Amino acid sequence: MDQKNNxxxxxxxVLSGIFxxxxxxxxxxxxxxxxxxxxxxVFIVSAGILPYPLTFLVTDLISxxxxxxxxxxxxxxxxxxxVFTVVLVYVAMAxxxxxxxxxxxxxxxxxxxxxxxxxxxxMLAYLTAQFIDIRIFHFWKRLTEGKYLxxxxxxxxxxxxxxxxxxxxxxxxSAGVLPWESFYSLLWMGWMFKVFVALIDTPIIYFCLxxxxxxxxPVSHLEEN
Length: 225
Prior knowledge:
Number of strands: 2
Strand order of the largest sheet: 1-2
């Protein structure tokens, strides 16, 4: 029993680390836009979107294995880690650049600098979407009495990703960072890309739970934590 508890605690730390690393990376690489060709559709999205769906996969895993309280904890930890990272980036930009530096200050700011509206929008969208994702996940888990993992995994992620994409685009367009004319096209393209990734992560979460079936018992739908 102690060995199982130790493994469970260690896995939670690993999943939390993956979550926080993915979230911080999203903000650091958000300034680059990329073309993703999925065969049936070509998406033009921020590179920050690429690791972001992984955060929802991890919160769904934590929700399933550890419960709502632990999932909320890692979401808050990710928020503070992101804020701390941005503070460190701005400190690095404020420090004078040495002559031997391969990057000048202007290039460094262009690559790593985040505008106030962009960061505020991303963090507000992140917190709103993640907490909605967790609430919907547990709502469907209770409603289906712990059955149909594919339903709660996809329903929670798709709804929360729509909220996430909408919130950040509204903030960016309101702040003048993006034109309102591109709102609906960016909303549709961003959300559809996230939905497609959400569908892909369903077999992944089933596979992860299959690997862990003898090591960790998922939290019952009757437990409210």
